Amino acid sequence: MRVLGVDPGLTRCGVGVVDGGPGQKPTLVEVLVVRTPPEDDIAYRLLAVAERVEALLDQHRPDTVAIERVFSQSNVRTVMGTAQAAGVVALAAARRGIPVAWHTPSEVKAAVSGNGNADKAQVTAMVTRLLRLDAAPKPADAADALALAICHLWRSPMQSRLAAALSTSVLAARPARIGSVGR
């Protein structure tokens, strides 16, 4: 499975592509950070993020895009820019028929480090170790994007099995409820 992980942002948007699957060690395909100048118009900044991500989607053809779920921050401008960047990435994936998965920061930290409260240094160290890299990905946005991709690689098989089990149990329960309506 190939996952494109995105740590959304307007000034720095981390993007990492990782291959892997059950019983396989994750492998780095590409990592980069899309940068946009804060003084530029927001529409052009979003366009720059979208164009770069679209090029990566077309080049690497991931099976899934994993995006960090935007969480509340005290700075409304920052959270708005992050949400907007996440939105253009999700739109680019949807236009290509690529599923999008959303992961919270604590889910990602727990998946790669075993600690949902890990700091950036711990996450970066684990990403470096898991991908067997000679040097830590920099800046932190790059490491976070790779962590998102790894998180999805590891969590998606379980999430798929849970979703299948839930849909089976709901479908199994449905005929019983329908049959009892007329009684």
Could you characterize the architecture of this molecule?
With 183 residues, the chain is of the alpha/beta class. The protein has one domain: 2-Layer Sandwich (Nucleotidyltransferase, domain 5). It is 55% helix and 17% strand. It is built from 5 helices and 5 strands; from the N terminus they run E-E-E-H-E-H-E-H-H-H. The protein has helices spanning 42-60, 76-95, 105-113, 120-130, 140-181; strands at residues 2-7, 12-19, 27-35, 64-68, 100-103. It has a 5-stranded mixed beta sheet with strand order 3-2-1-4-5. Strand 4, helix 2 (76-95) and strand 5 form a beta-alpha-beta unit. Helix 1 (42-60) packs parallel to helix 2, helix 3 (105-113) packs across helix 5 (140-181) and helix 4 (120-130) packs across helix 5 (140-181). The longest helix has 42 residues, at 140-181. The chain is globular.
Which key terms come to mind for this protein?
183 residues, alpha/beta, Nucleotidyltransferase, domain 5, five-stranded mixed beta sheet, 5 helices
Show the helix and strand layout.
Layout: E1 2-7, E2 12-19, E3 27-35, H1 42-60, E4 64-68, H2 76-95, E5 100-103, H3 105-113, H4 120-130, H5 140-181
Parallel strand pairs: 1-4, 4-5
Antiparallel strand pairs: 1-2, 2-3
Helix pairs in contact: 1-2, 3-5, 4-5
Keywords: Cytoplasm, DNA damage, DNA recombination, DNA repair, DNA-binding, Endonuclease, Hydrolase, Magnesium, Metal-binding, Nuclease
Enzyme class: hydrolase
Family: Belongs to the RuvC family.
